[in-house]
Design a protein that fits this description.
The complex is a heterotrimer of chains A (307), B (253) and C (279).
Chain A (H helix, E strand, L loop, with lengths): L2 H9 L2 H44 L1 H6 L1 H5 L4 E2 L4 E2 L2 H32 L2 H16 L2 H20 L6 H25 L3 H9 L4 H12 L1 H17 L2 H7 L16 H8 L5 H35 L1
Helix pairs in contact in A: 2-14, 5-8, 5-11, 6-8, 7-8, 7-12, 8-11, 8-12, 9-10, 11-14, 13-14
Chain B lengths: L5 E12 L2 E7 L2 E3 L3 E5 L6 H8 L9 E9 L2 E2 L6 H7 E4 L10 H11 L5 H14 L3 H4 L12 H13 L5 E5 L7 H14 L4 E5 L3 H7 L2 E6 L2 E7 H6 L4 H7 L5
Parallel strand pairs in B: 4-9, 4-10, 7-8, 8-9
Antiparallel strand pairs in B: 1-2, 1-3, 1-5, 5-6, 10-11
Chain C lengths: L1 H37 L4 H5 L2 E2 L2 E2 L2 H32 L4 H15 L2 H15 L6 H26 L2 H9 L4 H12 L1 H17 L2 H4 L19 H10 L4 H34 L4
Helix pairs in contact in C: 1-12, 3-6, 3-9, 4-6, 5-6, 6-9, 7-8, 9-12, 11-12
Classes of the chains: A mainly alpha (307), B alpha/beta (253), C mainly alpha (279).
The complex binds adenosine-5'-triphosphate (ATP) and magnesium ion.
Adenosine-5'-triphosphate binds next to strand 2 and helix 1 of chain B.
Chain lengths: 307, 253, 279
C-alpha cells in the first residue's frame, strides 16, 4: 500500500477540514443536548410539582396531627379544625359509584361495538363517543345542574344536589374513556381464540364472556382505572351538582364535598393554615392518584409480558 | 491490474451481528471507475459487506467489526469523518426510498445539507443530476410534484440522481432493480453502464445475467466469505471454484 | 337447550340496552345543550363585550384564544423536542424509563393539582399573579404528556428507509431529523397540537386558579382573563344566566366537534403520507 504518499496529499487540507468537522460535531452535540433537555423538562416539571405540593401541604400534618386531618370529621378551617375525612369518603364514594356504573355500561357498550353491532351502526356510534370524550367536563356539570339535579329533586326529594347527582354525572362522563379503551383491547384479541371457542360449539355470547373478555382483561382494567382517575380528579362538574357541604354523606341523596371541590372552592380566599390545609387536601389526592398510577403501570407491564 | 487504481480495499474484514458471524475475513480490492458485482445466495452477507464500506452498519448497536477497510488508502473506520465518507461513497437501496417531498427537493436535499443555498446553483445541480440519471425528460415539467407519485423505476432513478447530486466517487447499489419490472430494470442497467465512466460502482445483484451484462469484476460470496473474485468474463466462463460454477449455472442458491 | 336460548336472549338484550344507555345519555346531553344554546347564539352575544348590560362573550373567546396560543407555543416545541430525543437518540435504559414514568405520572395528575401548583408557583412565587401567562404555563405542563406521546407515535411511523437514505447522502443525524424525519411526522405533530388545544379549551379547574376570571379584554399576557369554560362555570355556579350558559356550552361543544374533525383529518393525512409509497 502506498499509504504514506497518499496521506501527505490528504494532509494538505487536513487542518481546515478538521476544524469544519469539529464545528459541525459541536452543533450536533448542542442539538442533542437541547433535545435531551426537553425530555428532561417533563421529569423536572414532575419533580417541581410534587415538591411544591408536598412542601406546602405536608407541614400542617405535623402542626395539627395526621390523625386529626385524615380522620377528622369536622372541617371548620377558620376555627382550626381541618378534618377532611368526609371529603375523602365522598371522593371515594363518588368515584366507586360512578365507576360501578361506567364500567358495567361502558364494557357492555364496548362489547356491543366490537362484537355485535352492525357495521353501519358502529360507524355512527364510535365517532359520537369520540366526540363526547372531548367535551369539557364543565359542560357535563352544567347539564347535571340543569337536568339531573331537578330530576332527583322531583323523584327523590332533598333538593337534588347530592352524591347521587355527582355519581350520575361522573358515570356518564367517564363512559367514553372506558368504552374506547375496552373496545380497542377487545378488538385486539386474536381471531384464533374466538375461532377456537366457536369451533368447540360455544355460542357467540359464550365466546364473548368466556374467551374474549378474559383475554382482553388487562386492557379493560386499564380503561376502567383511567376512568377512575378522571372521576377522582374531576372538580368543576362535581362542584356544580354535589352541594359541597363538608359532611359525611349518610345516603346517596345527601349533600357532600369531594377533595377536589374542597380545594377549588376555598383556594381563592384561604390564608395561612387554612391554605396549608387545602394543600394537604391536594397531597392526599396526589397520593390516591399515585396509587392508581402504579396499579395502572403494573397492569400495562403485565399485559406487555403476556404478549 | 497495473494501470488501474485501487479505490477501496479491505483487510481481514469481519463483521458480527451479536454472535452471528456474517462477514468472514474478506480481502478484496475494488478498482476505480469499474463496475464490481457482488453475487451469491440469499443471506450470504452481500448487503452486510456493502454497508461496511460506507459505515451504514454503524446504525445497528450490536454490530462488531474487526479488520480494516481502506478508501483511497485511508482507513474508513479511523481516518475519515463519517459524514465526509458517506458523501464520497453514495448508496442506492434495494427498495426505492425517495423522501416524501417534491422531486426537486429530493435531489436538492444532499447539496442543501452540505451547505449550498443559491437557487441557481441548486437548479443546475438538480437538472444535471436528473439528466445523468436519465430521468430529466420524464420529470422536467413536474419537479414540484411529490416524489412518491413516481413509478417504482422512476423512484429508483430519482434515488440515483439524489446520490449523484452529492458528487460521490463511489456508488454502492444493493439490488437496485429487484423491486422493478424488466423495462425499468433495463433502464437502470443502461444507466449503470453510462455511469461507470465517471464513478466506481459496486452493485449487489441476484440476477446472473445482470452481473454478466454490466460488471467488469465479479465477487462470489458464500456464507460470508468471498469464494472467488476476478474479471466477470473469467468468472462466468471459466470459474476456478466448483461452488462458483454450481451457483452460476443455477445448480444451487 | 331452551333455557340457554332464553339466557342468551336476555344477555343480548342487556348488551343492547347498555349500548343504548351510553348513546342516549350522551346524545341527550349534546342535543339538549345545543338546542337550548342555539336560541341565544346571536352575533350580539358572540361579538360584544361583557359590560354595560351587554353580556357578550368576546373577551372570553379572546382569552381562550390567547391561552391556547401561549400554551401551544410553550408546550409544542418542548414536547416535540422531548419526543425526538426519546425516539431518535435515547437508548433503552434508566433515562428512558425515568422520562416515561414522568410523562405517565404527569398525564395522570388531576387538573386541580395543576391549578394548585400553578397558583403557588407561577402566581405567587414567580409573581406572575393571576394572568394568562400563569394559566398558559400551567396548562402547557398539563398538555406536555399528550404532545410527547402523540408525537412519539408519529415519529415511530416514519420509515427507517428515510433515515437511511438521508444518512447515506452524508447528512448528519440532526440534519436527517430536521430535513426528513420531522417533516414526515408533521401531521402527527399537528394531531398532538390539536389534541392539546382540545384539552386546553375544555380545562376549567387549572385555569380558574391561575388565570383568574376577569371579564375584561386581556391587554397583554400579564392580564388576568376568563376562558370560555371558566365563564360557563361561573355563569352556572352563580346562577347568573342559564341562557348565556347554554349558549356558551353550545359554543364549547361545537368547538370540540371541530377539533375532533381536524384531528381525524390530520391523523388520516399521516397515514396516507406513508402508505402512498408502495404503489
Ligand atoms: N440487522 C441485522 N441484524 C442481525 N442479523 C442480520 C441483520 N442483517 C442481516 N443479518 C444476518 O446477516 C447475514 C447476512 O445478511 P445479508 O442481508 O447481508 O445477506 P444478503 O447476502 O444481502 O442477502 P439477500 O440476498 O437476501 O439480501 C444473514 O444471516 C442475516 O440473517
Ligand atoms: Mg441483501
Amino acid at each position: 500500500m502506498n499509504k504514506a504518499c497518499n496521506s501527505i496529499s490528504a494532509n494538505i487540507s487536513y487542518g481546515t477540514q478538521q476544524k469544519k468537522y469539529r464545528l459541525r460535531n459541536l452543533k450536533e452535540h448542542i442539538a442533542e443536548g437541547l433535545l435531551l433537555l426537553c425530555a428532561f423538562l417533563a421529569v423536572i416539571s414532575l419533580l417541581i410539582i410534587a415538591t411544591y405540593i408536598f412542601y406546602s401541604g405536608v407541614p400542617i400534618f405535623g402542626k395539627v396531627g395526621f390523625k386529626e386531618i385524615v380522620f377528622g370529621m369536622v372541617w371548620k378551617p377558620l376555627e382550626g379544625s381541618f378534618g377532611i375525612f368526609p371529603m375523602i369518603a365522598a371522593s371515594l364514594l363518588a368515584t366507586l359509584g360512578s365507576v360501578a356504573f361506567g364500567a358495567t355500561v361502558g364494557l357492555m357498550t364496548a362489547v356491543f361495538l366490537a362484537e355485535l353491532s352492525p357495521l353501519w351502526l358502529s360507524k355512527i356510534v364510535r365517532p359520537a363517543i369520540e366526540l363526547l370524550a372531548g367535551i369539557p367536563s364543565v359542560v357535563y356539570g352544567f347539564f347535571g345542574l340543569i337536568v339531573i339535579v331537578p330530576l332527583i329533586d322531583k323523584y327523590c326529594g332533598g333538593g337534588g344536589n347530592s352524591l347521587l347527582a355527582a355519581i350520575m354525572i361522573l358515570g356518564i362522563m367517564i363512559l367514553p374513556t372506558i368504552v374506547s379503551i375496552s373496545e380497542t383491547s377487545l378488538r385486539a384479541v386474536p381471531v384464533e381464540y374466538k375461532e377456537g371457542s366457536l369451533a368447540l360449539g360455544a355460542s357467540q355470547l359464550q365466546t364473548i364472556f368466556k374467551v374474549t373478555i378474559p383475554a382482553a382483561k388487562s386492557g379493560i382494567a386499564a380503561g376502567i382505572i383511567l376512568g377512575m382517575g378522571r372521576a377522582i380528579g374531576e372538580t368543576m362538574a362535581v362542584i356544580l351538582v354535589i352541594g359541597n357541604t363538608p359532611q359525611l354523606p349518610g345516603s346517596l341523596l345527601d349533600r357532600a364535598r369531594t377533595l377536589t371541590s374542597n380545594i377549588a372552592i376555598e383556594m381563592s380566599y384561604a390564608q395561612g393554615l387554612h391554605q396549608e390545609a387545602l394543600f394537604a387536601t391536594g397531597v392526599v389526592l396526589f397520593v390516591f392518584i399515585m396509587i392508581l398510577n402504579i396499579v395502572l403501570t403494573t397492569i400495562f407491564r403485565k399485559a406487555g409480558e403476556e404478549k | 491490474m497495473n494501470n488501474t487504481q485501487i479505490k477501496i480495499s479491505t483487510k481481514n474484514l469481519n463483521l458480527y451481528y451479536g454472535d452471528n458471524h456474517a462477514v468472514k475475513n474478506i480481502n478484496i480490492r475494488i478498482e476505480e471507475k469499474k463496475v464490481t458485482a457482488l453475487i451469491g445466495p440469499s443471506g450470504c452477507g452481500k448487503s452486510t459487506f456493502l454497508k461496511t464500506l460506507n459505515r451504514m452498519n454503524d446504525l445497528i448497536p450490536y454490530v462488531r467489526i474487526t479488520g480494516d477497510v481502506y478508501f483511497e488508502d485511508l482507513d474508513v473506520y479511523k481516518d475519515y469523518d463519517i459524514v465526509e465518507l458517506r458523501k464520497r461513497i453514495g448508496m442506492v437501496f434495494q427498495k426505492p426510498n425517495p423522501f416524501p417531498m417534491s422531486i426537486y427537493d429530493n435531489v436538492a436535499y444532499g447539496p442543501r445539507t452540505h451547505g449550498i443555498k443559491a437557487k441557481e446553483i441548486l437548479d443546475e445541480i438538480v437538472k444535471s443530476s436528473l439528466e445523468k440519471a436519465a430521468l430529466w425528460e420524464e420529470v422536467k415539467d413536474r419537479l414540484k410534484q411529490n416524489a412518491l407519485g413516481l413509478s417504482g423505476g422512476q423512484q429508483q432513478r430519482l434515488c440515483i440522481a439524489r446520490v449523484l447530486a452529492v458528487e460521490p466517487e463511489v456508488i454502492l447499489m444493493d439490488e437496485p432493480t429487484s423491486a422493478l419490472d424488466p423495462l425499468a430494470t433495463l433502464k437502470i442497467e443502461d444507466l449503470v453502464h453510462e455511469l461507470r465512466n465517471n464513478y466506481t460502482i459496486i452493485i449487489v445483484t441476484h440476477n446472473m445475467q445482470q452481473a454478466a451484462r454490466i460488471s467488469d469484476q465479479t465477487a462470489f460470496f458464500l456464507h460470508g466469505e468471498v469464494v472467488e473474485y476476478g474479471p466477470t468474463k473469467k468468472i462466468f466462463r471459466v470459474p476456478e471454484d466448483k461452488r462458483t460454477e454450481d451457483y452460476i449455472t443455477g445448480r444451487f442458491g | 337447550m331452551k333455557k340457554r336460548k332464553i339466557k342468551e336472549t336476555i344477555q343480548k338484550a342487556v348488551i343492547w340496552l347498555c349500548a343504548f344507555i351510553t348513546v342516549a345519555a350522551l346524545a341527550w346531553i349534546v342535543i339538549y345543550i345545543i338546542a337550548n344554546g342555539l336560541a341565544h347564539l346571536n352575533p350580539d352575544f358572540i361579538f360584544s363585550e361583557y359590560k354595560g348590560g351587554k353580556n357578550g362573550i368576546l373577551p372570553m373567546i379572546l382569552s381562550t384564544v390567547y391561552v391556547v396560543l401561549l400554551s401551544v407555543i410553550i408546550a409544542a416545541p418542548i414536547g416535540v423536542g422531548a419526543a425526538l430525543y426519546l425516539v431518535e437518540y435515547a437508548k433503552p435504559g434508566k433515562l428512558l424509563y425515568l422520562v416515561r414514568f414522568a410523562t405517565e405520572t404527569l398525564a395522570g395528575i388531576p387538573s386541580i393539582i395543576y391549578g394548585l401548583f400553578g397558583f403557588i408557583f407561577f402566581v405567587t412565587i414567580l409573581k406572575f399573579s393571576f394572568s394568562l401567562l400563569s394559566g398558559a404555563l400551567t396548562l402547557s405542563i398539563m398538555v406536555l404528556p399528550t404532545v410527547i406521546r402523540t408525537t412519539e407515535e408519529a415519529l415511530k411511523c416514519v420509515p427507517v428507509s428515510y433515515r437511511e437514505g438521508s444518512l447515506a447522502l452524508g447528512a448528519t443525524k440532526f440534519q436527517t431529523i430536521r430535513g426528513v424525519v420531522l417533516p414526515s411526522a408533521i401531521p402527527g405533530v399537528l394531531t398532538a397540537v390539536i389534541l392539546s388545544i382540545g384539552r386546553i379549551v375544555g380545562e376549567t379547574a387549572a385555569v380558574y386558579l391561575t388565570a383568574g376570571m376577569v371579564t375584561r379584554f386581556p391587554g397583554s399576557m400579564m392580564d388576568s382573563g376568563r376562558t370560555l369554560s371558566v365563564h360557563l362555570y361561573v355563569l352556572a355556579k352563580e346562577g347568573i344566566s342559564f341562557e348565556e350558559a347554554f349558549a356558551t356550552a353550545a359554543i364549547l361543544i361545537i368547538t370540540v366537534a371541530l377539533i375532533n374533525l381536524a384531528t381525524n383529518k390530520a391523523a388520516g393525512r399521516l397515514k396516507r403520507s406513508f402508505t402512498s409509497q408502495d404503489n
